[in-house]
Amino acid sequence: MAVSISFVMVFSVLVFAPVCFCHYLYPQFYEYTCPQAQEIVQSVVAKAVAREARMAASLLRLHFHDCFVKGCDGSILLDSSGTIISEKGALPNKNSARGFEVIDEIKSELEKACPQTISCADILALAARDSTVLAGGPSWEVPLGRRDSTGASLSGSNNNIPAPNNTLPTIITKFKLKGLDLVDLVALSGSHTIGLARCTVFRQRLYNQSGNGQPDPTLDQSYAAQLRSGCPRSGGDNNLFPLDFITPTKFDNYYFKNIIESKGLLSSDQILFTKSEETMKLVKQYAENNDLFIEQFAKSMVKMGNISPLTGPRGEIRKNCRRINGY
Ligand code: HEM
Ligand SMILES: *[C@@H]1O[C@H](CO)[C@@H](O)[C@H](O)[C@H]1NC(C)=O
Ligand SMILES: *[C@@H]1O[C@H](CO)[C@@H](O)[C@H](O)[C@H]1NC(C)=O
Fold first, then answer.
1. What is the pLDDT of residues 236-269, one digit of tens each?
2. Least crowded by CB within 10 Å, which of 38, 191, 196, 201?
3. What is the pLDDT of residues 128-166, one digit of tens each?
4. Which domain holds residue 60?
């Protein structure tokens, strides 16, 4: 009897519940608790990008590196302390992930306006969108309501984020593990229409790609010669080069046009054209049709932003993006 009564109760709660027990992200999440949140984020990002155009690229990348490790939960922002080993020291982030001071500035403005309300994970998602717009790319509504992790994963960062010398099947697998398909991979790689990369991440292509002492044959040889002049065989590891040498601070489809001309900077860029018929077709489509690219980019960014968020009672709203609460 007790069993059937509780069954009926559970059943009726599930069917007639006036509120949704499901937890998903939606753009109006802070509509009542902090209506000015999006304006605050936008204005700090705009100031930062006005100071330095590259910051748009750096903030966009932070959201990607956050989402691929334990989901979009702000884990990348945590500094090492106590039991936490910061993801900032992982190979994909060390000496290249940047923009943390801008996130701090946004967070401190938001804490003044709406204490402990806006998550650091949502700040990253909003800053990525605003950065894209400021660089001349598409806009989209950002689903919100992510909460912040109380931990970080150094190994997750090293293993889940694709490396520039990974094979195409490896990169495809790393995206698939996050629920992202080939269309998402090619469109999101279009982020490399802005920003810079260090000599060390593509040097191998210039001198000894396959261990035969030869440069990568899929790299335009005069472009390679140009790159060699700033990226020597040894030394100059941190010398910087635009990922899109035609319009390095403008969000457009020159990234794809460059790839077609064998002028993709990273191996992971060029192989989208040389190692699979399917990704090659997408590269061609986006190179020919900027509208198609930016429309898909916006969709894929929302999809990436939905990777395993912490919602409802899970996680917390950090007061300081660098530390979990209570530390
Ligand atoms: C497909 C696999 C990807 C690989 C292998 C890759 C790899 C890299 C590498 C090696 C750099 C240069 C880092 C350095 O100098 O050490 C870089 C920069 C960058 N990446 Fe990616 N990336 C990938 C996908 C993405 C995605 C999905 C996004 C965004 C949604 C993104 C956004 C960026 C941006 C904007 C920069 C420039 C950052 C700056 O100038 O501060 N990348 N990427
Ligand atoms: C890829 O790059 C990493 C880091 O520089 C290096 O340790 C590794 O040997 C490279 N792998 C291949 C297959 O070249
Ligand atoms: C190229 O790399 C291979 C294997 O990593 C190495 O044995 C060879 O000595 C290198 N050649 C040059 C010219 O650096």
1. 999 999 999 999 999 999 999 999 999 999 999 9
2. 196
3. 999 999 999 999 999 999 999 999 999 999 999 999 999
4. 2-161
Query: Under 8 Å CB-to-CB from 184, ≥6 apart: which residues?
Result: 175, 300, 303, 304
Q: Cα 126–310–327 angle (5° rounding)?
A: 90
| Residue 147 and residue 222 in one domain | no
What's the gap in Å between 204 CA and the centre of ligand 3? 10
The whole-number pLDDT of residue 113 equals 98
Q: Measuring from atom 5 of ligand 2, which residue has the nearest CA?
A: 201
pTM above 0.85, yes or no: yes
Select from 109, 140, 161 the last residue of a domain.
161
**Tally of domains in the chain:** 2
pLDDT greater than 70 at residue 7: no
In angstroms, what is the span from residue 64 Cα to ligand 2's centroid?
21
Give the mutation target among 58, 63, 64 for probing the ligand 1 site: most ligand atoms within 8 A of CB: 64
In a mutational test of the pocket of ligand 3, which residue from 208, 214, 216 has the highest number of ligand atoms less than 8 Å from its CB?
A: 208
Q: Are 258 and 220 in contact (CB under 8 A)?
A: no
Catalytic residue set? 65
Tell me, in angstroms, the distance from the centre of ligand 2 to residue 204's CA. Answer: 9
319 part of a folded domain: no
- Closest CA to ligand 1's atom 16: 96
Q: Is 87 exposed, middle or buried (0-12, 13-18, 19+ CB in 10 A)?
A: buried
Residue type, 160: N
Mean pLDDT of 201-219: 97
